[in-house]
Amino acid sequence: MKPRSTGAAGIAALLACMAMLAQAGQTARDQELLDREMALAAQLRCVVCQNQTVAESRAPMAEDMRREIRSQLEQGHSNEQVINFFEQRYGSFVRYNPPWKPSTWLLWSSPFLAALGGFVLLRRTLRHRSMPDEQLTPQQRDRARQWLDTTSKEERQ
C-alpha cells in the first residue's frame, strides 16, 4: 500500500508544480501584455484631456482607450496596428508625438511660426516707439546744457 500513496503524493506534487509553472507563465504573459499596453498608452494622447497621454489620464475616455488597447493586444495585433487603429479613428493628433508628414507639418511648425510672429510684432512695436527724429530747438538745447552743467557741478561737490 505504501507504493500507491507515494505515487499519488508524487502525482499530486507534480500536478501542483505544473499548475504553479502554468500560473507563472500566465503571469509573465500578463505582465508582458501590461507592459506593451502601458508603452502604447504612453504614445497616445487622451482625446479629452489633450495635454496628457492615455497612460497618465484618468478620464473615462482614456480608460476606454486603454481597454481597447488591451483588447487589441490580446487579439494579437502588433503595436503599429493598434496605433494605426487609433490614428484612423481620431487622426494624427492622437499620437502624443505625431510623425513628420505633410498632414502634420502645420502641427509641428506652429510653435515656431508663433514665435517668429511674436518677434516680428515686437520689432514693429519697438520701432514705432523709438524717439522721434525731430531736432531740439535752440531753447531746448540751452535748457538741457544748463541742466547738465548744474548736475555735473553738484556731483563735483
The helix/strand order is HHHHH
| Through-space gap between termini | 123 Å
CATH superfamily heading of the domain at 15-101? Cytochrome C biogenesis protein
In the predicted model, the low-confidence regions spanning at least 5 consecutive residues are none
- Tally the beta strands: 0
Q: Please give the CATH class of the domain at 15-101.
A: Mainly Alpha
Strand content: under 5%
Helical content, roughly?
over 70%
Distinctive features:
157 residues, mainly alpha, Helicase, Ruva Protein, domain 3, C-type_cytochrome_biogenesis, metal ion binding, CcmH/CycL/NrfF/Ccl2_sf
Would you kindly provide a written description of the structure presented here, covering whatever features stand out?
The protein has 157 residues and is mainly alpha-helical. It has a domain of 87 residues: Cytochrome C biogenesis protein (Helicase, Ruva Protein, domain 3), CATH 1.10.8.640. 71% of the residues lie in helices and 0% in strands. The longest helix is centred in the first third of the chain and has 42 residues. The radius of gyration is 36 Å and the shape is elongated. The model has no long low-confidence stretch (mean pLDDT 81). Possible subunit of a heme lyase. It holds the Pfam family CcmH. GO terms for molecular function: metal ion binding.
